């Protein structure tokens, strides 16, 4: 089974995307505002503006690149959403004429590029958009090394995770992981008495160390790596990282 990433954030997902905020928005915006040093800032995969809109409200100009028209429509419908310059296109390819003191990609969105080449191109594109003193910030999960221990009889790494089991409603996430390409094809499945909903998603896991090499290829060096937006230390138990690169 393989998914087309362009359909992963269509109208169905966009309609409910903001219903369950992650809860780290305030900390993320505070950190990004500090790193922007007055801006301007560019968000790659800006989505519905979950981070960009509150960041813009701090006085920083925020532009965006986003592949999904449905997500852009949601952003535009929010207060202040019309004021942001958002270009519809692929964050690995779109080239804007402006340069930014902060370019950032958060909430694992770099992994929406499902090949290493696309991720390398995206990091290079981020670097291309930086001012000389600009920083590139990536927030991403640290891949789960246990994937490799869950092979089934056919040699496929796979999982089923029941996130919600209630009378009349069950939510499960099912996924298959390919070690060779670091690609995950997964689907959030919601089953209710009235029917079911499928939200497919394709991702490519990227390790922090691999990201550092992509940054080096783009002429960037790691300046900070934290375990979260509040500057938590990054160590072997960290489930995610906030990494800051500069020339
Ligand atoms: C997990 S959402 C994150 C949205 C937003 N950054 C946030 O933090 O809420 C991932 C976003 O990446 C967008 N996306 C996926 N592939 C993309 C690409 N190649 N170029 C630009 N945006 C892309 C999706 O449409 C979606 O809006």
Describe this entry's structure for a reader.
With 247 residues, this protein is an alpha/beta fold. It has two domains: 179 residues, 3-Layer(aba) Sandwich (Rossmann fold), CATH 3.40.50; 58 residues, N-terminal domain of TfIIb, CATH 2.20.25. 22% of the residues lie in helices and 34% in strands. It has six helices and eleven strands. The strands form two sheets. A seven-stranded mixed β-sheet has the order 3-2-1-4-5-11-10. A four-stranded antiparallel β-sheet has the order 6-7-8-9, with no helix packed on it. Strand 2, helix 4 and strand 3 form a beta-alpha-beta unit. Helix 5 crosses helix 6. The chain is globular and about 50 Å long. It starts with 10 loop residues before the first helix and ends with a strand. The structure holds S-adenosylmethionine. The site of S-adenosylmethionine has 20 residues, from strand 2.
Q: How do you describe this structure in short?
A:
The protein is α/β, with parallel strands linked by helices. The chain is 22% helix and 34% strand.
Overall spatial form? globular
Order of helices and strands: HHEHEHEEHEEEEEHEE
Strand content: 25-35%
CATH-assigned homologous superfamily of the largest domain: Vaccinia Virus protein VP39
Based on CA atoms alone, the radius of gyration comes out at: 18 Å
Tell me the span between the first and last alpha carbons.
40 Å
* Helix-strand category: alpha/beta
CATH architecture of the largest domain: 3-Layer(aba) Sandwich
Number of helices: 6
Strand order of the largest sheet: 3-2-1-4-5-11-10
* Tally of separate domains: 2
